[in-house]
Amino acid sequence: MIVTVTPNPSLDRTYEVPALDRGEVIRAVAERVDPGGKGVNVSRAVAAAGRRTVAVLPLGGAPGALVADLLHAQGIEVAPVPVGGATRSNIALAESDGVLTKINAPGPELSGQEQEALLETVRRCSRGADWIACCGSLPRGLAPTWYADLVARAHAAGARIALDTSGPALRAALREGPDVVKPNAEELAEAVGRPLATVGDAVKAAEELRGLGARAVLASLGADGQLLVDDAGAWHGSAPVRAVRSDVGAGDASLAGFLIAGGTGPEALASAVAHGAAAVQLPGSVMPSPGDLDPAAVTVTAEVPMDRPLTQPAA
């Protein structure tokens, strides 16, 4: 069973448009409404794989009620923490050439009582969990050390923690030794304070995060695949993608695939790559089901292409 924690969930509306022309009336060719937030997406991918998952998240107002209904419809157990503010609504505009424009609302501010209720709900739901995945940005009211506190409490209870966040929240949590952190290339560059131009640069940055406390680093490099760096060494995984339809939630699908496969070693990396490659070929933030995966197309190697330039260098 995998518990996910999403401190700043959302109701996500995705519109597929031919092109984005400022100042013009744009007619969408398709639209979707999905429950959003990085941890929510992890739960959706875990549920799509037929595994049990519990989504812990603060919910408020009509958008929050709709998020809960949509999650229940996908077979996800919801552990809501009622809050006074309304859950945020986000908009994504997906153009036919694969370019995605996102508008993310800030979300409600959580009171001290609501923050403690969130931590207590995580504690209650994590009994017997294989993993706790803590994902996404922190809402207003939560200090950058909130994730660090959660990791410390979870470890004290004997749980394993996967952390997918960035900036000060990531740096503060590293000292508590999360079992795996999952940055993308931009977040990895931000964490070490320098640009990344090659796959080798990303490996070195991942090793630095391990030096700061992370036990393993699962890094998404976009078109250049994924890296896993842990005590046993470094692996690189990749898979061909026919066409990118939407990359919303692809990293979250990757993390779900990694945890579903045990959360350690090259086999888990292969599962992460398969899930991420499938997700980018689906509309909106649709999470892949087993029928969408192509494990045979995945390549995982310990011979990491250190000199390969990143398709999109991270500043």
TrEMBL record:
GO MF terms held by the record: 1-phosphofructokinase activity
Keywords: ATP-binding, Kinase, Nucleotide-binding, Transferase
Domain called Carbohydrate kinase PfkB: residue spans: 18-288
Entry-linked SUPFAM superfamilies: Ribokinase-like
UniProt-listed Pfam families: PfkB
Keyword ATP-binding assigned: yes
EC number, UniProt record: 2.7.1.56
Enzyme class, broadest EC rank: transferase
Coiled-coil intervals: none
NCBIfam families for the chain: 1-PFK (TIGR03168), pfkB (TIGR03828)
PANTHER family tied to this protein: 1-PHOSPHOFRUCTOKINASE, 1-PHOSPHOFRUCTOKINASE-RELATED
Family, per entry: Belongs to the carbohydrate kinase PfkB family.
The protein's name in its UniProt record: 1-phosphofructokinase
Organism: Streptomyces thermoviolaceus subsp. thermoviolaceus
